[in-house]
Structures are given as structure tokens and as C-alpha cells.
Amino acid sequence: MNLPISLIIARRYAQASKDGKFVGLISLFSKAGIAIGVMALIIVISVMDGFEGVLKQRILNSVPHIVIQPKELSGGGPDLITLSNQLEYAHPQIQQILPLVQTTALLQMPNDLQGVMVQGIKDQDSIPLGVKSVLVNGRWQDFFSRNYGVVIGRYLALQKGIGLGDKVRLIVSGASSYTPLGRLPAQRNFTVVGFFETESELDQQMVFVKSDNLNRLLKQPTDSSQGIRLVLNDAFSAQRVVAELDNRFDLKDFEVKSWHSTHGKLFDAVKMEKNMMWLMLSLIVAVAAFNIVSALVMMVTQKQGEIAILKTLGLSNTNVAKVFTLQGMLNGVVGSIWGVVLGSIVTLGINPLMAVTNINILGVPGLGLPVEFNGLKVVAIAALAIGLALLASVYPARRAAKLQPADVLRYE
User: Fold this and answer.
1) pLDDT by 10-residue block (mean), the chain, 412 residues
2) Cystine design at 101: which of 120, 133, 167, 297 (Cβ 3.0–4.6 Å)?
3) What is the DSSP string of 345-378?
4) What are the backbone angles phi and psi of residue 266, rounded to the nearest 5°?
């Protein structure tokens, strides 16, 4: 197999670099620096992705991804039904189209009051997919078979000492009635029939009741709805779906909102933190990659006699430049491979290692780090490191190509 002359010389220089111990040491440090930077990037990005995934699962699975409501509530029923039928196969991201019945209320418990968001669920087929899987005590069958039953957060129940079968009162200010004591908000006793758990703040802020019960409390027809709730395959595509639906359908009489209006700031903060971690850890890789400049400049100085002889024998400036570019790229490839191997091992084994060593970074017993290992991002990180190493090789390679044989060999 005939290899290019520049590759043959670059390989010989890489093997011969052991003669120059100082140059070899700097080259080793540059490889190690790239490996550490790549490893740190893989670990941190995997943990950040895992953390974002946990937030997405715990919060976004339980809230409406997209809400479509008439701007004028009067006469909006038929329009909602027509629009719901039109949206059924309108976009591949749409998983469920559900009636929206919700309101804010006060949850009165035996010894406390708590502001909550009350969501109505019409029937078994109308349970949002994300909500269906978070019921940890009780059964949905009991919820629908019992009149005025309520499902509350497990954490709220533990905090307030509420058990299954206990009575709580929902007080709604949006509907009221006149009494001899004056105007009083609508209120009704509900029986706790189940607990849900998302392991997020929603456990204290949300409760579920049947839609017809909530409509009665709101003094609305039992089959009425305030809008349409869309459940998507990927909640992060909500804004794109909203834009596409707005272009496709006439929604000027409707108010269309995504989960970004209520929880967007939290996820924007997580995204900004991820981007900053990318930037800071990429700078570690960049500093390590530019150590290659020092190693290659010293190698060019050490090998300038040989370079001059090669050029007198007919080696072109382009091939001379390729020799040292390949040298720098080799350092980047080796460092990236080390970093990918170490980063993958640490990322995939960090939770078992924490369990064996009894180290708990989060401070919560039995809770490991959320990790989401993404092969494409690992490849992108390795490509970034190799690209920076290649960029760092440009100056030494150009300097070697500009050497004049006559000037170098004048005193030989």
C-alpha cells in the first residue's frame, strides 16, 4: 500500500519525537489536556441532558403542551368542536386532542389552605398520557366511578397529613352565589381517591377532578369546555407546532398558547446553563489544543535541517505543510479517543460507582445523577477537539513550509 509521502514523514517524525524529550513531553501534555477536556464535556453534557430530560418528564408530561381557547367564550362551543375535528390529523406531533376544563382554586384541608390549579378529566380516554402514568396510589377506575373524587399530589398529602378517603374542600372564586351572608365563592367537598407524584413542584400546585364535577362547581354545563388541550410527542416542539398550525388554520378568533408561557423561563435557564457549560469546557479543549502550537514550533526548529534537505530533494511546500498538519491532527485524534473512552466509561458508570463508594453528590439517599448519553453529541465533541487541533497546526505548518533551504544549510 503506497501512502502519501507527507503521511510517511509525519509518522516517522511522530516516532522519532522520542529523541526530543521536551518536545515529546509538551506533545503528551497537549494530548492529555484534550482528553481531559473531551472527557469533562461528555460527562457534564450527559448529566445536563439527563437533568433536562427529568424536568421534561416530571413537569411537561403533566401540563398542557398547547392550549387553544376562544377569545370570546360565548358561542365558542361549536367552533371548538369543528377545530378539534380539523386538528385530529393535522400534525404528526399531535398525540392527543382533549377538552380543556381547568381553573384556579383554594384547596381547604383540615388544618391549612393551599392555592392549586384544578384540571378536569372527562373520562378514561381523556386522561393525558403523561398524567396517566404518575398515579402512585389509588386507581383511575375508582376516580371515575366516584362522584366528586379528587386526585392530589402525594407530597402535598404527606405534608398535610391527608390520606385516601379524606375530605377536602375546593373553593372557586370564578363562580359565586348570593347568600344571606353576602356573595360567597362556589365550593364543594371532594373525597381523595388517589395520589399522583411527578417529583416536581406540580405535586403541590395541581389536583385532578372529573370534568363534569368541575363544570358543576363553575356553574357551567357539564359537557362544556374552555378550550382544546394538545398533547405532543415532543413537548419541546410546541412553539414550532403552534407556528405551523397558525399558518395552516384560521386561528384569529382563538388564543393559542404553549407551555412556554407558564414554564418556559425554567427551561430557558437550563438551556442557557447548558450553553455556558459547553462554552467553558470547550475553552479547556481549546487551551489544550493550542499547546500543540508550542510542540510543533519546537519540532520545526529541531527538524529544520531535515526540512531543508527534503525541500532540496523536491518536496513541495504543500507537502511540508501537510507533514506538520498531520502531526497536530494526530495529537488531536489521539487525545479525542482517550477522552471519548474515559468520558464514556465515567458517564455510564458514575451511578454504579457512587453506589459502591457510598458517595451521594445530590445529598438525597438512593438518588443518582440523571444521565442521558447521546452518541451524536459525543461524536460532535470529538470532532470539535480534532478541529481545534487541526486549526492549531496551521501556523507551525506554514512556518515550516516557508523555510528557505539556502538559509538553513548555509553554515552546514
Assistant:
1) 67 58 72 88 88 80 85 59 79 87 88 88 85 86 89 88 90 72 79 88 88 89 86 87 85 84 80 84 81 77 75 76 80 89 89 74 64 88 88 82 72 59
2) 120
3) HHHHHHHHHHHHHT--SSSSTT--------HHHH
4) -65, -50
In angstroms, rounded to a whole number, what is the distance separating the alpha carbons of residues 223 and 139? 23
**Are 185 and 172 in contact, with CB atoms under 8 Å apart?**
yes
Residue 268 is predicted with a pLDDT of: 82
Please give the backbone phi and psi of residue 374, each rounded to the nearest 5 degrees, phi first: -115, 110
In the chain, how many H helices and how many E strands? 15, 11
Helices marked H in 17-97 — which ranges?
Answer: 21-55, 77-87
Which burial class, exposed, middle or buried, applies to 194 when counting CB atoms under 10 A from its CB (0-12, 13-18, 19+)?
buried
Tell me if residue 116 falls in helix, strand or coil: strand
Q: Find residue 196's DSSP bridge partners.
A: 135, 153
* Cell 526548529, residue located: 301
DSSP secondary structure letter of residue 124: G
Alpha helices in 256-316 (DSSP H): 260-302, 304-312
Nearest CA to 128 out of 195, 81, 61, 67 is that of: 61
CA 203/CA 63 separation, integer angstroms: 12
Q: Is 160 exposed, middle or buried (0-12, 13-18, 19+ CB in 10 A)?
A: middle
Predicted structure pTM score? 0.71
Q: Dump pLDDT digits (tens) for 335-393.
A: 899 999 999 998 888 888 777 777 666 555 556 678 888 889 899 999 988 888 888 88
Answer yes or no: are the C-beta atoms of 291 and 28 closer than 8 Å: no
CA 283 to chain centroid: 22
Is residue 281 within 8 A of residue 385, CB to CB? The reply is no
Dihedral (C-alpha) 207, 212, 216, 219: value to the nearest 10 degrees? 100
Nearest CA to 65 among 36, 83, 46, 91? 91
Contact 100, 117 (CB under 8 A): no
Coil, helix or strand at residue 175? strand
C-alpha cell at 268: 430557558
Cα Rg, the chain, nearest whole Å: 32
Task: Read off the pLDDT of residues 78-132 as tens digits, 9 standing for 90 and up.
Answer: 467 778 888 877 788 888 888 888 888 989 888 888 889 999 998 888 888 888 8
Q: Of how many residues is the chain composed?
A: 412
